[in-house]
């Protein structure tokens, strides 16, 4: 509590010290206020013009052309255009279109004008709604409107023009790339055609060389085995016939030879055997049909054996004898002839297989190299062709996108609030400036009075003397001319109030004139 009282007492001493030096406050206020008020009053009027535009990025064609045409993100495009609107090149265009460049005579002045325009032209966005506000302040109301109008035109035309320029640039690039890839594709096709003509006799083996060689080797082994088997069959028949001729025994024929020889009774014997089997299943051995069939089968077997014996006996004579051959002899001779013909055909096939194998083996070092070169040529050709087809597809998509842009714009600019020429100035904010001048004047005077009171302090209370010195204060004596002092203080108070009141009256007049839109300076002149 004592600390609070001490603090309040010290604060009271400071205020009294400032009050004693209040003439400094009057001096500062009467120096700063008139200068500040006059400066604010002569500030030129600023006119503000603004435009509000809504960019509609919705399009009916977007969902219809999805996957068919190249589509860009219109929201990203408009945001990028908004960010680059106040680039130096665009600001220079705005300055020239609005004739602001006529106010400059040197490059330095023109650069300063561009920098000032870049700072003063304001482009604000509300966010996701794609509503943009363009504003600009100038001393001339018509110039403010012109600058905003030119900025708005540049914003609209720039966004639409960028789409056109981007589409044209993409089309030119695609055309150039297609022409280049078309030339490369023609060269690749020519190289591939020359390669095929050069190695036309080897290319059919491409990719199947080793498998073809293995197949031919397998066929050769199979053919040789078949020739060997056929020769063995021919030799077996000849050996059997030779032994039968030497012994002169027609019954010396082995079962193998007999099984090879065919007679005219073979089919009938086979049919009777099958018939006999069927009869024995139904009847006993004493049945007349069974007995008759057995007798007929025995007669046929005798006739068959007789024909074989006659064939063997006919071949046992001299080779130069003109003994007519039997049917069985003719049949066996034909069988041997057929086997020999098969051997001859197989030998021809063997020679052809050997020739083809030798031909392939002679190319065993060349074919892999040709295969590698052919694979490289085909790979280059396939890659070039694939890229060429992709570029053609992209160009078709780009053409479709361009036609879609022509038929319906992706960006629809709707002017919500057009730029108008302002009738009343929007600035400067003189009321605020007047208030700031008044406040700073009194604050400066108060601060100066406080500093002077601290550098040359005055003892106002007896307790101050006790704090400054170590002597005790036993009492205080009233000034003998206290009435004159009070009268003088009242006079100083009146002067201070009159001074401060006059300044407040001037401030009130200025604020009132500003509220009533009265130009006091122009009226005074």
Would you spell out the secondary-structure blueprint of this structure?
Elements: H1 2-20, H2 22-41, E1 47-56, H3 61-64, H4 74-84, H5 88-97, H6 107-120, E2 122-125, E3 131-138, H7 141-198, H8 209-247, H9 255-260, H10 266-282, H11 288-315, H12 327-362, H13 366-407, E4 412-417, H14 430-455, H15 462-468, H16 482-515, H17 520-524
Helix pairs in contact: 1-14, 2-14, 2-16, 5-6, 5-7, 7-13, 8-12, 10-11, 14-16
What does this structure look like?
The chain is mainly α and 525 residues long. The protein has 17 helices and four strands. A four-stranded antiparallel β-sheet has the order 2-3-1-4. Helix 2 runs parallel beside helix 16 (482-515) and helix 5 (88-97) packs across helix 7. The chain is rod-shaped.
Quote the distance from N terminus to C terminus: 62 Å
Beta-strand share of residues: 5-15%
Strand order of the largest sheet: 2-3-1-4
Helix content: over 70%
Overall 3D geometry?
rod-shaped
What is the mean pLDDT? 75
CATH fold name of the largest domain, please?
Helix Hairpins
Count of helices?
17
Largest sheet descriptor: 4 strands, antiparallel
Instruction: Please state the CA-atom Rg, rounded to the nearest Å.
Output: 63 Å
Pattern of helices and strands? HHEHHHHEEHHHHHHHEHHHH
At the first level of CATH, what is the class of the largest domain? Mainly Alpha
